[in-house]
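User: I would dearly like some help making sense of a protein record. I have put the entry right below:
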Amino acid sequence: MNPVNSVLPVALVMGVVAGLLVGLYFNFFNVPVIEWAISLEEAAAGPEPGGLSVSLAAQRIGQVPATMVAGVLFGAIFTGLYSLVRRAAPGWNGWAWAVIAGLLGFWALSMLTQMKYPANPPGVGEEASLLMRQGFQFLFIFLSLAVVAAGCWAIRRLHQSGAAGMQRFLGYAGIGLAYVVAVIILAYVIPGNPDPMPAGAPPAMVILFRSFTLIGHLLLWVFIAVGVAGYIQYRERGIQAYPEPSEANRGLPSARQP
């Protein structure tokens, strides 16, 4: 069986489980910050009574399913990164492949994207620019992952070339430098968030929301990576403990016999 095909279902299941746990985490940490932001927004706009409780109820109810869907997407992306890392470093083990794939996913999809498009609580950002901001953000994520994939492919080609010693070191350095240049170009070419921060938005509220969101992303990647690595180790131990019987032991004729 293709190793990637065996990893994909586990990564998707772990994505669902991780999304459930992180959704509960967001309910405890992010929703109070959202409550703070909504209360400030309604105080400035003069809301009708009961509007805040409805908004918070919707946030709490929808937080977990939304995070579970995100976990499934993260699991699918993790599988692709895992395949790339496995081919770039075939001599390593499942734990190393899973950990590096998780770190690459967190960096390319979460950390780097947060640096370019920081997560903002409700009331921060103009509705008129929402589609434009989301479109550029998705483009940035796609290109960021593409650059990581190109780097893994380049490392694989470097290993296949048989380079050693200083030649291999220079190859690694060149790939790293090319990646840094590509990220800088992406950061400057793709437009960022054009909306200024509202004057009445407390800095502490924005910092807390962004920090809790980034921690939630990190937890998603950690849960998926650890779950996949644990499955791989369990599967390898099972294969070693119960090896498949040979043709002779199964009492089947050999393919070489007439």
